Amino acid sequence: MEFRKVLGLTTGLLGLLAGLAVAEIPQANATPGPPGNKPGTLAGAAAHSGRYFGTAVTASKLGDPAYTTIANREFDMVTPENEMKLDATEPRQGQFVFTAADRIVDWAVENGKRVRGHTLLWHAAQPGWLQSLSSSALRQAMTDHINGVMSHYKGRIYAWDVVNEAFADGTGARRNSNFQRTGDDWIEAAFRAARAADPAAKLCYNDYNIENWASAKTQSVYAMVADFRARGVPIDCVGFQAHFGSGNPYDGSDLRTTLRNFAALGVDVQITELDIQAAPPATYAAVVNDCLAVPRCAGITVWGVRDPDSWRSGETPLLFDGNGDKKPAYTAVLHALRHGHHSHHGHG
Ligand code: XIL
């Protein structure tokens, strides 16, 4: 009796020790992320380096099995394409509508995916009531909007695009908008309100045409983020939309330089709306490799599933064609995710 007890205890201890030993193994070769991540998918391949691979999703297509099959299989991060924008979520002042956005968030959570919230303050997609406000009334409405939307989704959003596209092309000055006319400090006021509304969400500044390091717009955004970090304004990430094409050509390894320089300010960087005119496989692979080279590049989101789903459908810029078949760009991205020289992205 005594002996069997001791033996049982010993076996139990050994089991405990074995369990501890397993727990001590570094996670470098493990596949983090949701259990739904299958090998041979974009999300599964990205997870090997601790990164996500996402897509924009539109609520109106969640009833289309051809669409949801691909979206569910290949991606582990979801961005509502339009459903969280101001005109959709607060069509009348103080009356919030989350029906369409909730469908996407519920679908994402049911399927083990995370969500990027897009976007709280943007000069476009504004409801009429907001466009007619100015000065302190507009400032108050901006804060109220942030509070209303972020409290509804509190704890369910990985990262919010708090402010979208606040800088002008060319000069790199602030874009002239109703928000800007309330004063230069509107962006930091938005980030402070956002931090208070959901402390668990990462807070991003998101913009387009800021991929090339030398451009004045990139430099202006960089200066703002550096200033925020220096003064303790809460910001956790910068989103690079990465809509590439003849109007905004992908320029060699310049994106990598930009990602590195922003990351050195102590923020995550993310590719948030990737699409490339005509979907050249080599360019898609190069963008993936740029992200993989920068430890603080947390992940990549493409702006839609199949070419006909794209806002630039005429340019066939995505990874799947209209039949849902994988394009050469898909194969190039998967290969880069699997075989690229990647740094690991830490979770947090
Ligand atoms: C686009 C959507 O894809 C379109 O469906 C919509 O008509 C306009 O907005 N930058 C952004 C995204 O931050 O929200 C935009 O999405 C594309 C450019």
Feature tags:
348 residues; single chain; binds (3S,4R)-3-hydroxy-2-oxopiperidin-4-yl beta-D-xylopyranoside; globular; eight-stranded parallel barrel; alpha/beta; 12 helices; 15% strand
Topology readout:
Layout: H1 2-24, H2 42-47, E1 52-57, H3 65-74, E2 77-80, H4 86-89, H5 99-110, E3 114-122, H6 128-131, H7 135-152, E4 159-164, H8 186-197, E5 202-207, H9 216-231, E6 237-240, E7 243-244, H10 254-263, E8 268-276, H11 281-292, E9 297-302, H12 328-339
Parallel strand pairs: 1-2, 1-9, 2-3, 3-4, 4-5, 5-6, 6-8, 7-8, 8-9
Helix pairs in contact: 7-8, 11-12
Q: What is the compact description of this entry?
A:
The chain has 348 residues and is α/β, with parallel strands linked by helices. The chain has helices spanning 2-24, 42-47, 65-74, 86-89, 99-110, 128-131, 135-152, 186-197, 216-231, 254-263, 281-292, 328-339, and strands spanning 52-57, 77-80, 114-122, 159-164, 202-207, 237-240, 243-244, 268-276, 297-302.
The small-molecule ligands in this entry are: (3S,4R)-3-hydroxy-2-oxopiperidin-4-yl beta-D-xylopyranoside
Structural class estimated from helices and strands: alpha/beta
User: Any idea what the shape is?
Assistant: globular
Strand content: 5-15%
Tally the beta strands: 9
Sequence of strands across the biggest β-sheet: 1-2-3-4-5-6-8-9
Helix content: 25-40%
Low-confidence spans? 1-35
* Number of DSSP helical runs: 12
Q: Biggest sheet: strands, sense, closure?
A: 8 strands, parallel, barrel
Alpha carbon gyration radius: 22 Å
